[in-house]
Design a protein that fits this description.
The chain has 499 residues and is α+β, with helices and mostly antiparallel strands. It is 54% helix and 17% strand. Bound molecules: adenosine-5'-diphosphate (ADP).
Amino acid sequence: MKLDSLKINREKYRLGIRSNIFLGFAAFAVIILVLLWVFQISMLNTFYRYTKEVEVKNTADEIIYTLRSEDYFDQIKEIARNKSSDILICNEYGIVEVLVTNVKSEVFDMLSPNAAALMYSQTARSGGSQLVEIPKQKKQKNESTNPSEGQIYQQHGNDNGNGNESLLYCKCFVNPAGESRMVAVNSKMKPVDATVSTLKIQLICLSFVMIILSFGHAIILSRKISRPIESINESAKELAQGNYSTEFEMSGSKETAELAGTLNIARDELSKVDDLRRELIANVSHDLRTPLTMIKGYSEVMRDIPGENTPENVQVIIDETERLSSLVNDLLDISKLESGNIELEKITMNLTQITESIMMRFEKLADYQFNFYHGKDVWVDADELKITQVIYNLINNAITYTGEDKRIDVVQTVENGKVKISVSDTGEGIPQDKLVNIWERYYKVDKAHKRAQRGTGLGLSIVKKILDLHGGSYGVVSTIGKGSTFWFELEVVEPKKEI
Ligand code: ADP
């Protein structure tokens, strides 16, 4: 009880397709916007700084490499111009060997030998390289034009060209002549604040547009998807109430239209099964009642009327009992076959001999003429009992429905590695439009036909199930007024060698 109420509660809080799609879209839009904000706004400065750092370090390495060539000065000038950087190479005493200023920075222009030597020693102490960020500061009024030693980095900050931040990278190295030198690369940092505020405005506008678009899209899409499903659900509820005329609307996407189509087929099948169930109850109760009434009637006559205890009357009771037991057997067989847990006990069997022996059993029936046309004996891998039942059911039907001449022909032919057994009668035949239905359980072509009423409508569906299990093919050819030929085919195998 508790579990059930828990389940019901959970069902109550389960979201519908519309809400799910809607929330999904909204969450997607929010995630995209958050990512855009994080990457474009918060981390832009970090990304820019990182790329700049890599750039100045690479520039320093490139310059050190350039010193190997003779025209290194021209190459350094070119690098400085391309990278918008100032480049300085000096020795440990602060004597400048190369100075290229490119960013109108006064950092290197005003560098005294002492300040350069100080920069050198600080770099050497920091492990051979150092990266210094020169912060953006307002220009002081009484700007010193001759910086003193020890003030080098403040000076850079106070005095780096047009007041922007710059990044200074110093690296000690040994030149091709084997002397210790230091290269310093000063690269201007472009202000990202302006870019960030432009991006912010753009993102705010984009956020509005994205929220409106995604919400609008979510509403339209969720409606489009949920509407056909809701309609299918409504029809399914009606079907569950037993309304077999309900129609599943084939609208919406391909999958929902397909689902509706499949449900329409299922509805037709259900309706057919329901009709057949009603018919079966009527048939079976009729079929059970008739022999039971006969048995009871004859038994009473034999008990009450002297001289009626004749072998003929006993035979009637035996015949009716047989009819009853064959009906019950058919019902058991079909339910076993349909349950799906039946296992075939296949053996290599002589189909010709088995057909012959079944026919011999029937030949005892007076009035009927049986012919079996066959060539050499053929073997098949099959469940002997079940295949016997197939042949038996087909011959039994032929006997029931054959014409006045009471003739039944069985023909065995072999073609393309397959053996075909055909059972023909000379009866009324079956209308073409009924040929598909006769394989269905409980189906009878002519319900009013007095002879047809003898059967249960299960014989052919048992045949079909058994042949399906064997992977064999089967069919019927029928001409109205001339008769019907029922056939089946099985794969021929080599006969088992006798040991
Ligand atoms: P039944 O027990 O009623 O014969 P079957 O499943 O064997 O059930 O056959 C289904 C229906 O197919 C029969 O009711 C009959 O209408 C038709 N049928 C089967 N065999 C023949 C036949 N040889 N000739 C004409 N009609 C047949």
